[in-house]
Amino acid sequence: MAFKGRVGLAVTGGAGAVLMLATACSGGGDKGSGELSAADKNTVTITPGNGTDKVKPDAPIEVRAGEGTLEGVTVQGKGVTVTGQLSADKKSWRSDRTLAPGTSYTVTAQARLDGKVNTVTSTFKTLRPSKTLTITDITPNQKGEEVGVGMPIFVRFNRPVTDRAAVERALKVTPDHPVEGAWRWIDSQQVIYRTRTYWKAHQKVRFNAALAGVNAGGGVYGAKDAEATLNIGAAQIATGNINGHHMTVRRDGKKLRTIPFSAGNGTTREYTTTSGVHLLMEKASPVTMVSPGRKEGDPGYYKTVVQWAVRFSNSGEFTHSAPWSVGSQGSANVSHGCLNLSPANAKWYYDIMQRGDVLKLTGTSREVEWNNGWGFWQLPFSQWKKGSALKDQTAAGTPTAPTTGAPTTGAAGN
Question: Of 245, 278, 336, 338, which one is the catalytic site residue?
Answer without folding.
Answer: 338
